[in-house]
From TrEMBL:
<dbReference type="GO" id="GO:0004553">
    <property type="term" value="F:hydrolase activity, hydrolyzing O-glycosyl compounds"/>
</dbReference>
<feature type="transmembrane region" description="Helical">
    <location>
        <begin position="357"/>
        <end position="377"/>
    </location>
</feature>
<keyword id="KW-0378">Hydrolase</keyword>
<keyword id="KW-0732">Signal</keyword>
<keyword id="KW-1133">Transmembrane helix</keyword>
<dbReference type="GO" id="GO:0009251">
    <property type="term" value="P:glucan catabolic process"/>
</dbReference>
<feature type="domain" description="GH16">
    <location>
        <begin position="18"/>
        <end position="302"/>
    </location>
</feature>
<dbReference type="InterPro" id="IPR000757">
    <property type="entry name" value="Beta-glucanase-like"/>
</dbReference>
<dbReference type="InterPro" id="IPR050546">
    <property type="entry name" value="Glycosyl_Hydrlase_16"/>
</dbReference>
<keyword id="KW-0812">Transmembrane</keyword>
<feature type="signal peptide">
    <location>
        <begin position="1"/>
        <end position="21"/>
    </location>
</feature>
<dbReference type="Pfam" id="PF26113">
    <property type="entry name" value="GH16_XgeA"/>
</dbReference>
<protein>
    <submittedName>
        <fullName>Glycoside hydrolase family 16 protein</fullName>
    </submittedName>
</protein>
<keyword id="KW-0472">Membrane</keyword>
<dbReference type="InterPro" id="IPR013320">
    <property type="entry name" value="ConA-like_dom_sf"/>
</dbReference>
Length: 381
């Protein structure tokens, strides 16, 4: 959800153009240049303790490439036999740049990895983790049938049990130190959001809005992709898309406080701390261990992403800069005699959520309240 300013037109005219604009295309990862701007891990999976070696860019020819259709293929090696306890080649790649609030991140994919032992994800995280937060747009393990979205933060951030979303909130504490870093999690009720059903439906689009008043994630099957996401020239407007699948409003998690600029990461882990747990692996994948399953390359024929594009749009109203400008515009209104002391104080409490100044009475008391609002904003950011 994006805020709508209540600043009088005369004050709004003073805002920078970027703070008033709709989303416009900022970055595209697609086609032969898809892999430009990504850094490859080049190490074993020492983060989730999986049976995976994440290749360097120089080693990636068989697992990260562009197919004849011009789509990016990011996959697990499905050719090599492994010795016992061997590590299977896979990919973990992260954008060199970061993206701050006020961004819309859109992945258009035709196929997503699935199958026993696999643990794929498309996610965003701060350079300094966990203090800068993490949001998982797409993630699952083994033969999971639907996608789950999760946020992971330091202590104090929660999902709102009363929030409006189409997904089911299954855990509301985002603290990475609680319940083995489960995160505050929404589960998509639609089978088409994951696995074989996703591919059979022609794939679809995941879209995530990172805004100061909340983080929201949508999934659109191929047949239901909004018109304003179907071309690179489009200017998306999430307010027209209906309820998101997952929604994390800043009312229960101050997004400005808990989320620093984010890098994007795509990876496919194998086994490890989640997919490889006997209580997780065995119920859907049968007898034997996850490590034994990894030895046979044919088990990973479906363990790949096929991505048409990842696009990042910027200029949304809900940026860190825009909230500061909104508070400043409220002070301008107060000094000009257009805001009351009461509404200016209220503006100070809600500025981080994006509210600006409102018309009211005149005088020094209003101006002083506006200055107090700015002080509150500075402490919150």
């Amino acid at each position: 959800m994006r805020w709508r300013s209540l600043v009088p037109f005369s004050a709004l005219a003073l805002l920078p153009a970027a703070a008033q604009s709709a989303y416009t295309l900022e970055q595209v990862y697609a086609g032969d240049t898809f892999y430009d701007g990504w850094e490859f891990w080049g190490n074993r999976d020492n983060l989730t303790n999986g049976a995976t070696y994440y290749v360097t860019k120089g080693e990636s020819a068989g697992v990260a490439y562009t197919n004849e259709a011009g789509n990016a293929i990011i996959r697990v090696d499905n050719r090599s036999e492994l010795a016992p306890n061997g590590l299977r080649n896979s990919v973990r790649m992260t954008t060199a740049r970061t993206f701050d609030l006020g961004r819309l991140i859109v992945m258009d994919a035709l196929h997503l990895p699935y199958g026993c032992a696999t643990w794929p994800a498309f996610w965003a995280h701060a350079v300094s983790w966990p203090s800068g937060g993490e949001i998982d747009f797409f993630e699952g393990v083994n033969l999971q049938e639907t996608n789950q979205v999760a946020m992971h933060t330091v202590s104090g951030c929660y999902a709102d049990n009363a929030t409006q979303a189409t997904g089911e909130l299954t855990f509301n504490n985002c603290d990475h130190g609680v319940d083995a870093n489960r995160g505050c999690t929404f589960v998509d009720p639609r089978n088409g959001s994951y696995g074989a059903d996703f591919a059979a439906g022609g794939g679809g689009v995941y879209a995530a809005e990172l805004a100061s008043d909340g983080i929201s994630v949508w999934f659109f099957p191929r047949a239901d992709i909004p018109a304003d996401l179907r071309s690179e020239a489009a200017t998306p407007d999430p307010t027209t898309w209906g309820l998101p699948m997952a929604s994390y409003p800043s009312t229960t998690c101050n997004i400005n406080q808990y989320f620093a600029p984010q890098q994007l990461t795509i990876n496919i882990a194998l086994c490890g701390d989640w997919a490889g747990q006997p209580g997780v692996f065995s119920p859907t994948c049968g007898m034997g261990t996850c490590a034994d399953y990894v030895k046979d390359p044919s088990n990973f024929d479906n363990a790949y992403f096929e991505i048409s594009s990842i696009r990042v749009f910027s200029g949304g109203l809900n940026t860190r800069a825009a909230t500061a400008v909104a508070a400043a515009s409220g002070i301008i209104g107060a000094i000009g005699g257009q805001a009351s002391a009461v509404s200016a104080a209220e503006r100070g409490r809600t500025a981080v959520g994006g509210q600006g100044g409102v018309a009211g009475a005149v005088g020094a008391a209003a101006a002083a309240a506006g200055l107090a609002a700015l002080a509150l904003l500075q402490r919150a950011l």
